[in-house]
Amino acid sequence: MPPVFSHGDLRLYILSLLDEAPRHGYDLMQALSERTGGTYSPSAGTIYPRLSKLEEEGLVTKSVDGRKTVYEITDAGRAEVAERSGDLEGIQAGLADSVRLIADEVRGSVRDAMRSLRADLAAASREEREQARATPADDARSRSREQLSRADAAITEFRGRVRSELRAHVARGGELSASGVDGIEEALRRASDAVAHALRG
């Protein structure tokens, strides 16, 4: 994966975050991780030297608040952010692309899991029909109940896997857009229709 920030972009982006509000170093690291959808989690060794450099350039000041050092942008820093607004828009567009790529990967994983679930249910339905033809009615019902338990277990496992993946994505700071959820809902509806079709077949 290419670097999230090109040369000099991180410096400008830190300034833009401080232009929003004063922040301490850890807060900046969290904000960077959230804004990049978890694709970039900077270390203290990356952030604090850049903050020191910005302070030397007169673009930020720092003050101590309890045990935290809070950084605040200066008028000179705001002037640079305003002057380079075009560069900043380009950086933000690149970050949005990164978040969209992550959302696409999540949707792809959901679609793959759906296909696997449909195949398993279709196979279970075929097996059920074959057993029903070869056994008495009472025995067929017993086997159907066994297969129902198997299908329930498969659906529960699928639901847990998808929920875990979505929650992990959001916990990493990834964006989950309304259109992304719409796509997931549509995929689930198609999976439900496929299950009904497999059972009727």
From TrEMBL:
InterPro entries listed in its UniProt record: ArsR-like_HTH, Tscrpt_reg_PadR_N, WH-like_DNA-bd_sf, WH_DNA-bd_sf
Signal sequence bounds: none
Annotated spans, Disordered: 122-148
CDD domains reported in the protein's UniProt record: HTH_ARSR
Segments forming domain Transcription regulator PadR N-terminal: 14-83
Feature: compositional bias, Basic and acidic residues: 125-148
The protein's name: PadR family transcriptional regulator
